[in-house]
Every structure is written in C-alpha cells, then in structure tokens.
C-alpha cells in the first residue's frame, strides 16, 4: 500500500473538498481521485461518499481514518529518526497556540532553535479544542494551551507559567489615577473580549459567575491584537493576559492595571501527544519547553 494514497485520503478528510485536498497534496484533482479509488480497491471497501462532489466518509472511512493518520505519522517519525541519528534535526515543527499563549511563542521558538538551528517553526493560532483534535490527528507536533481547564487528554505536558489577567483601558478614559481596579467598575465599561468559543473567555465567564457577575461585551474577537486595537482606537476597554503587556510600549496610549481581587491563575504549558516511540520533533519541543528561561513578569505570575 502506497503511503501517498493514505496522504490523499487524510487530506480529503481534513479539507472536505476534492480540489482543496488535491492542492494540499500538490497533485491534480483527477490524480487524487484515482489514488483514492486505488486505495478503496486495495482495501475492498468504499471509504468516501461522493457524487459529483465530496459528501463525507463512509462508516468504513471513518474507522480507517485514525489508522491512516497514524501510519503517516509513524513513517514521518521513522524518516526523522534515521535522518537525525548522526546529524541535526531538520524540517518544520508544527505548533498550535491558543491566543492567550502567543507572547510565549517567541520564548519557545528561541529555546527550540538554540538547540536545533536547522529547524523551522510553523505556528497556528487555534482554540484549545482545535489543538487537542489536531494533535490526535497528527496535524500538530506540539501545542501551547491551558493545562487545568478542560485539560487535553493523552498528552505529555510541561507547565510553563501561571496566567494572570490585567485590565487595559485607554489613557484619559477615567483610570489614570488608579493603581488597581475593582470588578464592578470594570464591568461598567464598554468592553471588548474574546468570543465565547475561546477557552479563555469560558474561564473568564466561569470566574465571574462564581462571584455573582455576568458580562455583556460590546465587541468580540478571536485575537488579542484585535482587542487591543479597539482599545487604542477608543471607546472600549478590555481584559488580557499579563503576558501581552510586554507588547505594549511603556508611556503609550494604554493604562494597564491589575485587579484588586484577581481571579485564580490558570496554568499554561506545552503539550505533545503521549505515544511511543515519541517523534523527534515532539522530543525537541519538550526539551525546548524545559529549557525556556522566562522573564520576571512570567515567573511572578
């Protein structure tokens, strides 16, 4: 059985569209369709429901998909192990990161490339659920995500830091003389926050509910950069992880304040799929996570 046929099958399941799957595999659509037909003939089972377009996987296709994904990952791991037995690690490490962890990406990448200068890093901004799914489908080598709330399963985790939230308002919006803020005065502001599909927002809402509060933001986004841009433009305030304050220039437009009664910190860490043997890229990611030297702001939570 040719590995390429399995790659066609996995790409179609991921993309849900023949043309996009063919483009992802750098082949023509007829080549991909012929390859899928050949795979079905070898297995003696129909894997894909199709008419003139992709409809979905058959029951047999859904059952076969995890094995195809695992077979591809195992061959990739075999090639990496053979290639790096006497030389540096090459290739691209695929990292998924929740938006809250994006400031950590720079520290992780620096530690990774210090030990593996021939590696490149491909970073995708994903939700915690998407990271868990992509690790299970062997579409990521590692993830940066929450470890305690809706924790990912079947992973090896390295805790990196405890996330604290801070309030960000535009200078001149009424908070210039404050050293801290109280939750009632924060919730009285026009807020922009992450949307409810993001785990950070679900954690935030749960902590608010535990204190008898609820929030009704005037704008939502899936990016902290978008939230900060709305605050800078005026008319909104927001709540962001403390790590993002390092990206805001001092003496700038922003007034950044801690909470007088902060919520409990949330642990964020690096995760890789717990499987044996572990891939070379997963091992490199774990080593980099353990080697990260964090700035004082992270160490202090």
Automatic annotation (TrEMBL):
Pfam families: HTH_1, LysR_substrate
Positions of the HTH lysR-type domain: 1-58
A single MF term (Gene Ontology): DNA binding
Highest taxon in the source lineage: Bacteria
Gene Ontology CC terms: cytosol
Keyword Chaperone in annotation: no
Keyword entries, A-Z: DNA-binding, Transcription, Transcription regulation
Family annotation (PANTHER family): BLR3139 PROTEIN, HTH-TYPE TRANSCRIPTIONAL REGULATOR YBHD
Family the UniProt entry places it in: Belongs to the LysR transcriptional regulatory family.
Entry protein name: LysR family transcriptional regulator
Organism encoding this protein: Sphingomonas alpina
Organism classification: Bacteria, Pseudomonadati, Pseudomonadota, Alphaproteobacteria, Sphingomonadales
């Amino acid at each position: 059985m040719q590995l390429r046929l399995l790659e066609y099958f996995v790409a179609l399941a991921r993309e849900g569209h023949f043309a996009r799957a063919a483009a992802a595999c750098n082949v023509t659509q007829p080549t991909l369709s012929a390859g899928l037909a050949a795979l079905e003939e070898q297995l003696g089972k129909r894997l894909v429901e199709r008419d003139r377009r992709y409809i979905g996987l058959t029951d047999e296709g859904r059952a076969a998909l995890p094995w195809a994904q695992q077979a591809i990952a195992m061959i990739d791991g075999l090639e990496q192990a053979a290639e790096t037995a006497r030389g540096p690690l090459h290739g691209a490490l695929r990292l998924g990161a929740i938006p809250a962890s994006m400031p950590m990406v720079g520290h992780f990448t620096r530690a990774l490339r210090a030990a593996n200068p021939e590696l490149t890093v491909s970073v995708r901004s994903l939700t915690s659920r998407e990271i868990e799914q992509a690790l299970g489908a062997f579409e990521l080598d590692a993830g940066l995500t929450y470890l305690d709330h809706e924790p990912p399963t079947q992973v090896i985790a390295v805790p990196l830091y405890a996330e604290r939230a801070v309030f960000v308002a535009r200078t001149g919006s009424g908070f210039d003389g404050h050293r801290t803020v109280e939750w009632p005065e924060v919730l009285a502001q026009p807020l922009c926050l992450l949307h409810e599909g993001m785990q950070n927002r679900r954690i935030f809402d749960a902590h608010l509910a535990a204190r008898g509060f609820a929030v009704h933001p005037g704008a939502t986004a899936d990016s902290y950069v978008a939230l900060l841009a709305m605050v800078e433009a005026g008319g909104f305030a927001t709540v962001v992880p403390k790590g993002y304050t390092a990206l805001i220039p001092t003496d700038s437009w922003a007034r950044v304040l801690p909470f007088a009664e902060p919520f409990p910190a949330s642990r964020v860490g690096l995760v890789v799929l717990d499987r044996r043997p572990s891939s070379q890229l997963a091992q490199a990611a774990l080593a980099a996570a353990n080697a990260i030297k964090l700035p004082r702001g992270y160490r202090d939570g």
